[in-house]
Amino acid sequence: HVQLVESGGGSVQTGGSLTLSCVASGGTYSAYCMGWFRQAPGKEREGVADIDSDGSTFYADSVKGRFTISKDNAKNTLYLQMNSLKSEDTGMYYCAARAQRCQQDPDEYNHWGQGTQVTVS
Predict the structure, then answer these.
(1) Residue 50 CA from chain centroid, whole number
(2) pLDDT of 33-57, one tens digit each?
(3) Which tops the pLDDT comparison, 42 or 26?
(4) Burial 13-37, CB ≥16 within 10 A → b, else e
């Protein structure tokens, strides 16, 4: 059973930066698609970025050029470097994993962390 634990959220001013981390355990981490999703109050959960087992990445248009997803297989850790943060980036950020190729639909993921809050003001 894959377990995911996020950290690194917090409050930051517009234009600032944060780095989120997600530590995975209980699965073959390197073989999984790993993704970051976020959910703002009153809105649906949306895909932010994902990285496949071969290293290929996807970014939502709203974060392209500002966010970078990466992973360290030796540490079983997924990262999301977030720069030039905007108020619309505020939300709960979730790490997710699936054993197949990455998809942008959150319903396709069956392993989720508890989330870490990001507030930009």
Answers:
(1) 7
(2) 999 999 999 999 999 999 999 999 9
(3) 42
(4) eeeeebebbbbbeebebeebbbbbb
Tokens of 77: 């850790």
Place of tokens 């109050």: 41
Total count of residues recorded for the chain:
121
Distances (CA, A) of 109 to 75, 95, 102, 103, 119: 22, 10, 9, 8, 25
**Opening angle at CA 98, ends 94 and 99, nearest 5:** 155
Write out pLDDT tens, residues 99-121: 999 999 999 999 999 999 999 99
98 close to 109: Cβ distance less than 8 angstroms: yes
So what's the pLDDT on residue 50? Answer: 98
What contacts 24, CB < 8 A, 6 or more positions away?
2, 3, 4, 32, 34, 76, 77, 78, 95, 97
Strand pairing partners for 49?
36, 59
% residues pLDDT > 70 (the chain):
98
